[in-house]
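A quick aside before the break. I want you to see a complete sequence-to-structure record at least once, exactly as it would be stored in a machine-readable document. Don't worry about memorizing anything.
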Amino acid sequence: MKATLKYIVIGLLSFMLWSCGQEHKELDRKDLAINNSEPTASLEKPLKNYFEKSQLQAAIDQEIENTYKLANDKLLTNAKEVVEDTKAAMKAIADSSFAKARKHIESGIGKAETIVVLNPEMALAPLDVSIGVNDVVTDLKTVEKIAKQAEDALNDGKIQQARELLDGLQSELNINEYKLPIATYPEVLKQALVLAKEKKYQEAIVFLNSALNTIVIDKKTVPLPLLRAEHMLKEIELLVKEDDFDQDAVKTLLDNADYEINFAEALGYGKKDKEFKEIHEAIEEIEKQMLDKTNTDEKGLVKKLRMKLEKFKNRIS
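That is the input. The structure line, written in tokens, reads:
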């Protein structure tokens, strides 16, 4: 009887806990519904554009070119040759050209040690850079539509479908910088050379492959909407230098920059960072200052805003 009573009590407690959990989940759903029902700022694209689409694309292309140039200026030719020697040694072993394999390993060791001597403080030698562009979605309405489809797919248990939908919510530059751990790389090559001299070629391949696997990839993601907004603010900064600047043109640029910043926020760049709100408020302040004919503070405010956006972009990238 006592045992039966105990199980009844346990059962009641379990049911109460489950009920509380369900109630909590229901409240969470209601909270989510309330949050989703809040109006999204500037869902509609501004009616007027200052820049043509091709002009904005040219600005993005220039950013890519500048990034390549900066990265390439840092690259070490010898570091790339060390990697090429490593791959050539592996190929030579696969082709049973063992003498050639040993020669490539020795060459790689020599070049790697030269880098270490010339750059004693360097831990990672810049090796290569690649830049990719993912610019699938183009407006806030599309973001909202795809996000809703992904949510519906998740609710229906279609996880892979939701993942594919969410993968499309990107508007970014993907910058990968490849770096050689130059402090440790020569030692791995030396171990591979010892194995090759002992005719343990398959083991040598394992060491050479492990050396390649130590290459470090620094990944950076730059939101394209913020790049476009930054380009617009640079143009505003030029316009407001004139005493009698075109206020309509500045207003159009501000509206478009504000839209792009909303776009970046909707895509999740910056993870709802508080600076988004500060940037929107700064844009509103500039618009207010333009209405006041006795005030010329907009010049300083625009410069301050552009610098703030640039720092923010660099921080979240």
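Two observations worth writing down. DSSP finds twelve helices and three strands in the chain. The first strand starts at residue 124 and ends at 135. We'll return to this after the break.
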